[in-house]
Amino acid sequence: MNTDELIELVKLHGKSIYGFCYQLTGNKEDTDDLYQETFLKAVELRRKLDVSRNPKAFLISIAIRLHQNHRRKLAWRQRIAPTAGLDEAANKPGSFASEATPEEAVLSLELRTMLENAASQLDDKIKLPLYMYYTADMTVEEIALALGIPAGTVKSRLFKARKTMRQVLEVDSP
Amino acid sequence: MKNDDLEQILRQALASKAEPDETLNNSLIEKIKERSQMKQAYRRKLSVGLLAAVLLLVLSVSAYAATQLFSPKQVAEHFGDQLLAEAFDSKDAIEINQSKNSGDYRFTLHGIVSGAGLSAFEHSSEEIYSDRTYAVVSIMRQDGEPMPSTADDEYGKVPFFISPLIKGQEPWRVNIVTMNGAYNEAVIDGVMYRLIECDQVEVFADRGVYLAISSGSTFFSKEAFKYDAATGEIHVNENYAGAALLFDLPLATAKADEEKAESYLKKLLNPTPEEPSDEEMEMQSWIDSLRAKIRNGEEIGETIADSIKEVTYDDSGNIVYTYENRSATILLENLFEEGQVGFTDRRLSVSGEGKVYQAVLFHKDENGVITGRIVILDEENNPK
């Protein structure tokens, strides 16, 4: 893949990659970093990247890997310097919800935040396919490809995720 | 709660409103350009672990390719259009592969290619506009059920409208139908593929071109989409019962051609009327002569006495006249001007063949009472 094709990927998939990164990090600053790092990592790997295959799945898999690496480093740093703690509260997703136009705000902010919180507390195994499917708008096959797991496994994880989300909805809004 | 509702709620709740801003993307693009030039240094930095991961990914990509949807090239080949297949494989083609869910379906826009003489099957309009745009879209059901095959009775029961729409142009006036469009459809392994074509839309690249899809009709539906005349933007009507969605076509703005676009739109929106045939001219002059006679109060034939009846009005205030098997419903304003009395020539309906022609005439007296009647035309008043 050449540089122009990579730049085209920024335009084509930038929005969904960014949205996905935002779900992972929960704040704009980290999202900007992760988003840029993802594409820059893709520059290094561009020889392995083929436009006709699935560049979006490839980019998402890079983003996940970078995010996990970053968290591992952060955890390690926290152990030696606990004061530099990650402020969970400030990192809750949803701070962008207010940017929705009135038409888009069909879901109440409360319900949205509730679902977002529930999703963010899910185990990574379930959470990643959920975000990939609903936030990054990927197909089951694309998710399977990016995570390197069979499509059947993706389906069953999505099923578990939906089940959990349904419970959240049914408990809080009978 | 229904599964569909849950799907919808999750899509809304988890869809991120966050978007990369322009400056971020610009700086990223600059960095990509910079880093691309530092190939050697970075290749050495690649860790073994990452290499292995990439290798694994590449391996699974090849395995996955077999079960993947058909490419635009393969779809064109399926339709026996090798020339177009090559066009989809060329550098000019734009590979898109974006999917969106709407209604019961998942739609994927595979790719698009524009140019002249790309297809082995020439469309009649190519004599006028040689440049055409081709795109491939696939449709599959979200519940995993196969789409009905073309031999199935169910096939076509849910029709789809798939068309490029141009930002700033009223979509009901500028769409695949008016842009000399056509499509081919096939169902392969339960997935429906549609190859659409129409006059070239790349000239509009700088204005913004959508690819609109809706279910329920093969034609543009005002229920499925809303047009904002102020901004020129087209939106999906969220309350539409069927599937409705829009893709932004990532056309190269360098291909935009304001002059061509304007002249194309001018012709499309103001078509030169076809010259009426001699027969039509004769019919028109016959009707005009009848009208002139009515206006001058001349008799044009014999009135059927039984047919003189006061008209009735329907709920919408239209005039309704019925005699035997003839019936006419006309808006009052279309029939009489304000204050007009006597016979009107504003609407004249004549029917018949051979030597017998009948006209329906309407008369309004001083009291505003409107009557209708059937007049059998005198032979001299029949068409020549």
UniProtKB/TrEMBL annotation, chain A:
<dbReference type="InterPro" id="IPR013249">
    <property type="entry name" value="RNA_pol_sigma70_r4_t2"/>
</dbReference>
<feature type="domain" description="RNA polymerase sigma-70 region 2">
    <location>
        <begin position="9"/>
        <end position="77"/>
    </location>
</feature>
<dbReference type="InterPro" id="IPR036388">
    <property type="entry name" value="WH-like_DNA-bd_sf"/>
</dbReference>
<feature type="domain" description="RNA polymerase sigma factor 70 region 4 type 2">
    <location>
        <begin position="114"/>
        <end position="165"/>
    </location>
</feature>
<dbReference type="InterPro" id="IPR013325">
    <property type="entry name" value="RNA_pol_sigma_r2"/>
</dbReference>
<dbReference type="Pfam" id="PF08281">
    <property type="entry name" value="Sigma70_r4_2"/>
</dbReference>
<dbReference type="InterPro" id="IPR014284">
    <property type="entry name" value="RNA_pol_sigma-70_dom"/>
</dbReference>
<dbReference type="InterPro" id="IPR039425">
    <property type="entry name" value="RNA_pol_sigma-70-like"/>
</dbReference>
<dbReference type="GO" id="GO:0016987">
    <property type="term" value="F:sigma factor activity"/>
</dbReference>
<keyword id="KW-0804">Transcription</keyword>
<dbReference type="Pfam" id="PF04542">
    <property type="entry name" value="Sigma70_r2"/>
</dbReference>
<dbReference type="InterPro" id="IPR013324">
    <property type="entry name" value="RNA_pol_sigma_r3/r4-like"/>
</dbReference>
<keyword id="KW-0805">Transcription regulation</keyword>
<dbReference type="GO" id="GO:0006352">
    <property type="term" value="P:DNA-templated transcription initiation"/>
</dbReference>
<comment type="similarity">
    <text>Belongs to the sigma-70 factor family. ECF subfamily.</text>
</comment>
<protein>
    <submittedName>
        <fullName>RNA polymerase sigma factor</fullName>
    </submittedName>
</protein>
<keyword id="KW-0731">Sigma factor</keyword>
<dbReference type="GO" id="GO:0003677">
    <property type="term" value="F:DNA binding"/>
</dbReference>
<dbReference type="InterPro" id="IPR007627">
    <property type="entry name" value="RNA_pol_sigma70_r2"/>
</dbReference>
Automatic annotation (TrEMBL), chain B:
<keyword id="KW-0812">Transmembrane</keyword>
<keyword id="KW-1133">Transmembrane helix</keyword>
<keyword id="KW-0472">Membrane</keyword>
<feature type="transmembrane region" description="Helical">
    <location>
        <begin position="46"/>
        <end position="66"/>
    </location>
</feature>
<protein>
    <recommendedName>
        <fullName>DUF4179 domain-containing protein</fullName>
    </recommendedName>
</protein>
